[in-house]
Design brief:
Blueprint (H helix, E strand, L loop, with lengths): L2 H5 L7 H8 L12 H8 L2 H5 L5 H7 L33 E2 L3 E8 L18 H4 L7 E8 L6 E8 L4 H4 L16 H10 L1 E9 L5 E4 L6 E3 L5 E5 L18 E3 L4 E6 L5 E5 L25 H7 L8 H4 L18 E4 L9 E3 L11 E4 L4 E7 L7 E9 L14 E8 L4 E6 L16 H6 L1 H8 L7 E7 L3 E6 L21 E7 L8 E9 L25 E6 L5 E5 L13 E5 L9 E6 L5 E7 L6 E6 L37 E7 L8
Parallel strand pairs: 8-13
Antiparallel strand pairs: 1-26, 2-29, 3-4, 4-5, 5-6, 5-7, 8-9, 10-11, 11-12, 12-13, 14-15, 15-16, 16-17, 17-18, 18-22, 19-20, 20-21, 21-22, 23-24, 24-25, 25-26, 27-28, 28-29
The structure holds MU-OXO-diiron (FEO) and calcium ion (2 copies).
The site of one calcium ion has 3 residues, from loops.
């Protein structure tokens, strides 16, 4: 499809929506067997109709309007979460369940370093932004600094920027080939990406506050933060650039989406849509970057490099593949940061593979090793996990090699309910020099190509994945509109709403080479038969959701799911939000709404403190996605004319991505 047609489509209200539509075209050429096909094979329509499935499977699968319960009916369902459900909807502000407080803790532009100036949105500068909280907060980690957990460090990813609502008078730049993007604006964008480490404390009155001059406060950005590469791909010829002849150094990190924390207290920042930051002036007849003359054309095409969604490559050669063809190979990794040492150098851990890393959630396996679950967020891409060779030590400094020495696996979901984890190891199976993989570095730099060769299962966009200590993991599959072949168990010819898969690893051991999989829920409105949703009948009209994305467990091992419908929230009429989703007992598959975003925002983060009394949430890009669907507004947002000015509601201030902290009125554990 012609790039200009997508960019100029009147249906797409901002650059992020156009970007999403552009990425709707999968790069995986190996689409023989999608997860939908496997589900179809596993749970055939005839089996469902004849009642041949076991109780669990049929409960998980049946979907009719008769299964949707009015809210009153929930009283009869024993829930593991105790709170009064919030009413779904979409308007200019956030909402939380009755009896809870949602306080704005940190906003884009809030100064977090001692020297940083107060935010002045009309006169923003890169120098100011480098000391201020960044844009589009996504992952949140919490590192306690005292035994009570009342002081700690928030580790927050800043995924991307929305120039049309950040900068006065600028408007959409993708439609103008970024002509308005000056070096200063580019530098501000770069300084607003990356991550923030911010000390926070709980006051005696139960409210949280930011410690502006906290000794460990730090900004990490793609503008100015030196990083090193470690693991098998570090130093490889394909990692070398003119400013780094050793192939072991890189400035910054890109598009940090979800992430994770390690058992030893470090922060894993996942690099997701890195391809969009690379530029080329060499275009094909459709206006798309033409990489046919590159030495690694197949690899670049498989990764969608360069995406050309930011103008940084016009100013910085390291983001321009016409000058630095290896530049993109330094991104798409998982970055480890020690948040307690503000002078530490972040490390890109190449052993965890290179792809559009959504997250990197960790768990210690039953045999003591570190396991990291990671999705590759693209239509028809894969689910991965990494297992360290050595066990996790109680001594933090002894764990520095765990993310360099280990095995990366990709998942194959078989029709008999087995998930097989296929090792991405050079010399194993097809991963040989004859097939283009001369070393483990090649396997890792081209993780996607290696996974293609192994016959991994193409999925419906793997977002966050969350492991639990009992050998279980939940995989968020957000949607896949590109499914064209209807099938019995997944009858939607396009999956607008996504689903969640549960994995139970063999012997409860997350390091196991295989396990069993099943579907926990299929998302969307269960009252509309054509949607094909599957929920426990105790789920109310407010409780069902679409497009699961980030997720978290609370201190009691209960699952919470955050949604990102993008511009498609118009199909549900609901804003994005946070849902309590039962995974155990008779109520398994029941979902209830706890918090919802202001219009155009996506919910990220969710992060509970260990005492279960505090929940940190990240509201990303408020006022942007799908605002044409908002009755009474019905147009795309701009800086001057946004659908909401959340959270300040100051007529001079655009919407600001912000961290919200939720506590129970009068104190106590959340949902108890
Ligand atoms: Fe950045 Fe896949 O969400
Ligand atoms: Ca996400
Ligand atoms: Ca998302």
């Amino acid at each position: 499809m012609n790039r200009e047609r997508i960019i100029n489509s009147p249906e797409l209200g901002n650059k992020a929506e156009a970007y999403e539509a552009f990425d709707d075209i999968p790069t995986n050429p190996h689409l023989r067997r999608t997860i939908g096909d496997v589900i179809n094979a596993r749970y055939g329509r005839r089996d469902v109709l004849r009642g041949m499935l076991g109780v669990t499977a049929s409960t998980a699968l049946l979907s009719t309007s008769a299964l949707i319960a009015p809210r009153a009916a929930q009283a009869g369902t024993t829930s593991n979460y105790r709170f009064e459900e919030l009413a779904a909807g979409n308007d200019e502000t956030h909402h939380v369940a009755p009896g809870y407080e949602a306080q704005i803790l940190l906003r884009w532009g809030d100064p977090i370093l001692a020297h940083a100036p107060d935010f002045d949105v009309m006169n923003q500068s890169a120098a100011a932004q480098l000391g201020q909280f960044g844009y589009n907060n996504d992952f949140i980690g919490f590192v306690p600094l005292n035994d009570a957990g009342t002081r700690g460090l928030l580790c927050v990813n800043h995924e991307y920027t929305n120039e049309e609502v950040m900068f006065p008078g600028l408007g959409r730049q993708d439609r103008a080939d970024f002509a308005g993007m000056t070096r200063e604006l580019i530098d501000i964008e770069m300084a607003a990406h990356g991550g923030s480490i911010v000390e926070v404390a709980k006051r005696a009155d139960g409210h949280w506050t930011v410690i502006r001059d906290g000794a460990m406060n730090r900004r990490i950005t793609p503008l100015d933060t030196p990083m090193v590469l470690s693991g098998p791909a570090a130093g490889h010829a394909r990692m070398k650039t003119s400013d780094d002849p050793e192939g072991r150094n890189v400035i910054g990190t890109l598009n940090n989406c979800a992430g994770g924390m390690t058992p030893w207290g470090t922060w894993l920042m996942a690099e997701e849509n890195f391809h969009g930051y690379f530029w080329s002036d060499v275009l094909d007849a459709d206006g798309r970057p033409d990489v046919s003359t590159h030495a690694d054309t197949v690899s670049k095409k498989r990764y969608g490099v360069p995406g050309r969604w930011y103008a940084w490559g016009k100013e910085y050669r390291r983001f321009n593949i016409d000058h630095e063809p290896n530049g993109p190979n330094k991104f798409g990794w998982v970055v480890e940061v020690d948040p307690k040492d503000p002078t530490s150098t972040p490390i890109k851990r190449t052993a965890l593979g290179r792809f559009r890393h959504e997250g990197a959630e960790t768990i210690v396996s039953a045999d003591g090793r570190l396991v990291v679950y990671m999705g590759d967020d693209n239509r028809f891409d894969y689910q991965y996990k990494y297992v360290s060779d050595q066990p996790v030590s109680d001594v933090a400094s002894e764990n520095s090699g765990l993310l360099d020495q280990g095995t990366l696996y990709v998942a194959r979901f078989d029709a008999d309910g087995t998930v097989a984890w296929l090792p991405l190891v050079h010399g194993t199976g097809p991963l040989t020099a004859e097939n283009g993989f001369a070393s483990q570095a090649d396997v890792l730099i081209d993780t996607r190509l290696a996974a293609d060769a192994l016959g991994a299962t193409p999925m419906d966009r793997p977002e966050d994945a969350q492991p639990r200590g009992d050998g279980t993991a939940y995989i968020m599959l957000t949607n896949n509109r590109r499914r064209t072949t209807p099938n019995a168990a997944n009858p939607r010819t396009t999956s607008h709403f996504g689903h969640i898969i549960e994995i139970k690893e063999d012997d409860g051991n997350h390091a196991a080479p295989k396990g069993r999989w099943s579907i926990l829920v299929k998302c969307g409105d269960p009252a509309i038969a054509e949607v094909g949703a599957q929920w426990h009948p105790g789920t109310s009209t407010d409780g069902w959701f679409a497009s699961p994305d980030n997720c978290a467990f609370d201190a009691d091992g209960r699952l919470w799911v955050a949604t990102d419908q993008g511009s498609r929230w118009g199909k549900t009429g609901k804003s994005d939000g946070l849902y309590a989703l039962e995974t155990k007992g008779a109520a398994r598959g029941t979902s209830r709404l706890f918090f919802r975003c202001p219009v155009g925002g996506e919910l990220c983060g969710p992060c509970f403190t260990d005492d279960g009394e505090t929940l940190f949430l990240a509201v990303q890009h408020p006022g942007t996605d799908g605002t044409k669907n908002l009755p009474g507004f019905a147009r795309a947002s701009t800086f001057e004319d946004p659908a909401t000015r959340w959270p300040d509601f100051d007529p001079q201030m655009p919407p600001r991505p912000s961290i919200v902290v939720v506590t129970k009125q009068g104190g106590g554990k959340i949902a108890h």
